[in-house]
Amino acid sequence: MLRALTGLLAPPACLACRAPGTTPLCAACRRALRVLRPEAVCPRCGLPRPCDGGGGGRGRGCPAADAPWARAWAPVAYTGPATALVAALKFRGALPCASLMAAQVAALAPPGLLAGGVLAPVPTHPARARRRGYDQADVLACALARRSGLAVEACLTRAGPRSRQLGAGRAERLQDGRLHLRCRRAPPSRVVLVDDVHTTGATLRAAAAALRRGGAAEVVAVTWARTL
């Protein structure tokens, strides 16, 4: 009943272009998403091949060559309608966005990427999660669990001062000690990290490194979108 009344007061609309009648994305905005096919991207950093000239690599080789994960991948580029969808999930409480994101991850994932292990959301800082009332990575991981059959396990915890990644430069994001992530307990052997966006990879690096220190033998990083 409440949802029906809300729909009358605020009819459904595309979260990207505001076209009425369809949410979270209209058909045109779904078509406008830039899909990153697994065979066309680097399995280490998730950037289009060749990956040595972009995404922060600046011609010095793959930017994730020394990353603590075995593989990183996202199905879409963080541009156009994808930016609006992530913002709606993070800042506007549009939790149904996670279902669309999870469906695309599950449908387009490279063979074997979601085969075995557990899904571990990259935790938002507790203060930020309390303010929002939810953790968007956890919401996305739960939606992906329903599609993949993998269990969600809160392997990681986040402490220390809040370090705002949005708006920070690459060098600032990658500073040692900027993010404080640790394992709650010994993690499973294989862990699939889940987050919304892979930008510089700083947060994913901190999370994967914590899991490897905790005893995980293999960590893969899965996000819905990848900054190019």
TrEMBL record:
Domain (Double zinc ribbon): give its ranges.
8-50
Looking at the record, the residues that make up the Phosphoribosyltransferase domain are: 189-223
Question: Taxonomically, which superkingdom?
Answer: Bacteria
**Listed InterPro entries:** ComF/GntX_DNA_util-trans, DZR_2, PRTase-like, PRTase_dom
Q: Which Pfam families match?
A: DZR_2, Pribosyltran
Give the family this protein belongs to, as stated in its UniProt record: Belongs to the ComF/GntX family.
Q: Which PANTHER family match?
A: DNA UTILIZATION PROTEIN YHGH (PTHR47505:SF1)
The name of this protein is Double zinc ribbon domain-containing protein
Q: Which organism is it from?
A: Paraconexibacter antarcticus
Starting at the broadest rank, the lineage of the source organism is: Bacteria, Bacillati, Actinomycetota, Thermoleophilia, Solirubrobacterales
